[in-house]
Amino acid sequence: xxxxxxxxxxxxxxxxxxxxxxxxxxxxxxxxxxxxxxxxxxxxxxxxxxxxxxxxxxxxxxxxxxxxxxxxxxxxxxxxxxxxxxxxxxxxxxxxxxx
Length: 99
Fold this sequence. Notes:
The chain has 99 residues and is mainly alpha-helical. The protein has a single domain, classed as Orthogonal Bundle (Chromosomal Replication Initiator Protein Dnaa, Chain: A). It is 69% helix and 0% strand. It is built from 6 helices and no strands. The protein has helices at residues 4-15, 19-23, 29-44, 50-56, 62-74, 76-90. Helix 1 (4-15) runs antiparallel to helix 3 (29-44). The longest helix has 16 residues, at 29-44. It is globular and about 40 Å long.
């Protein structure tokens, strides 16, 4: 099982941004979406509470997490990203098929 910091690093690598951007206050679409993906994975993969996620991401309080999860649920693009990264977390060494 991964730690929240590992999840941050994995999402940052997948989205090609520094972890500091995800933890920062940047509001560009790419950074905000990356942050939303992290929230979804921390909630659904690690099963962290809203308060714990707020602490990890340095949010003011847990209500930001609630709003973020609603945004992810309502946006198929973000859900797809979160599902893709979660699948990689669940199966980090997929078997290769030979042709």
